[in-house]
Each structure stands twice: as structure tokens, then as C-alpha cells.
Write a structure and sequence with these properties.
This protein is of the alpha+beta class. Helix content is about 25%, strand content about 30%. It has an eight-stranded mixed sheet, with helices on both faces. Strand 3 and strand 4 form a beta hairpin. The relative contact order is 0.16.
Length: about 180
């Protein structure tokens, strides 16, 4: 088990370490058809092993006291490569409100403040909604990762390699503007 991370709070999103009591809520999100399409193969054991048992890696996305999804933060321990890779999933009930963008902005600000100089994402090349969201936040397309993801059918699909650097956003990306706020 890795070290826990500090509680991070944005305008609407809180990022916190996972607790055993979060397992059912996280699994419910991962089982939603629109989430499970991209996050394949999660069951109770996998949630426990990969999400709950990794408080230094997994962050629970909480909105108004509800588990809205999860954020995986894979920080390099190599001082020569101060990069963090992030993976995010969000329940369908919380989509369309720019909460994923707020989550990433909050986490990226924390990473940049703690010495990381680059954050990368690798969405499936067909996940156009996620890609648009990441671009709005300030991520740029770097290239295509060919034959990157094995889909349930066994077919291979490409991913889009995207990044954001601290030199582009010294204080981290801005929080998204909230309509009717």
C-alpha cells in the first residue's frame, strides 16, 4: 500500500483517498454501460486490488458528498522524468457539467506544485467526448499510440497521446467556467 495523499478541494469537486466503503459505489460507476465501454472488466476483486488498495494512486472523485468517479494518478519516481499519467472515469449522472475537467485541473495543480512538469493522458482515439474535454482544459495532441488497447472483442484500437506541461500552465490549468454559477 502506498502513502495516502492530501484531500484536494475545488469549487465543486473533492479528491480524496479511497476507503473500503467506496468499493460498491466505484464498482457501480464502472458497471454503467457508458463507463464500462471504456473501462473494461472491472469486478469487486479488481476494484479492491486496483482502486481501494492504492490510496497513493487512486483518488475518489466526490461531488456534493457522492462518489462521482475515480482518478488514477501514476506519478514517476524518477527525478529525470517528472511526469504523471492520469486516467479518469466519471458516472454518467455527473457528465456534461465539466466536473471531469475540474477534477483534472485540481489534480494537475497539485502535481505541478509538487515538482511534476508534465501530465499525460491516453484516451481511446474513438472517445471523442473525452478528447474534446481534455483539449478545452489545455491538453495538446502529441501523437497516436497504435494498437494500444485490447477491446472486449479482441480487436486492437489506438489511443491518442495528449499532454500538458507546467511551462504552459505554471500554476496549473484554470478551473472550468460553470454556467449558471
Amino acid at each position: 500500500m502506498t502513502n495516502s495523499q492530501p484531500l484536494l478541494t475545488g469549487p465543486r469537486v473533492t479528491l480524496r483517498d479511497p476507503h473500503t466503503s467506496d468499493a460498491a459505489a466505484l464498482l457501480a460507476v464502472l458497471k454503467e454501460p457508458e463507463v464500462a465501454f471504456w473501462w473494461v472488466g472491472f469486478d469487486e476483486q479488481r476494484v479492491q486490488n486496483e482502486l481501494i488498495a492504492e490510496p497513493g494512486t487512486t483518488r475518489v472523485i466526490e461531488v456534493a458528498g457522492q462518489v462521482a468517479g475515480g482518478l488514477i494518478v501514476l506519478r514517476s519516481s524518477d527525478a529525470e522524468y517528472p511526469t504523471t499519467v492520469m486516467h479518469i472515469f466519471l458516472a454518467t449522472a455527473f457528465r456534461g457539467q465539466r466536473l471531469g475537467e475540474e477534477t483534472l485541473a485540481l489534480a494537475i495543480r497539485h502535481e505541478f506544485a509538487n515538482g511534476i512538469t508534465r501530465v499525460t493522458l491516453d484516451p481511446n482515439i474513438n472517445n471523442s467526448g473525452a478528447i474534446r474535454s481534455y483539449e478545452r482544459l489545455g491538453f495538446v495532441k502529441v501523437g497516436v499510440l497504435r494498437d494500444y488497447q485490447v477491446r472486449p472483442s479482441g480487436a486492437l484500437e489506438d489511443a491518442l497521446f495528449m499532454d500538458m506541461t507546467r511551462s504552459d500552465f505554471p500554476n496549473g490549468p484554470a478551473f472550468p467556467e460553470i454556467a449558471n454559477a
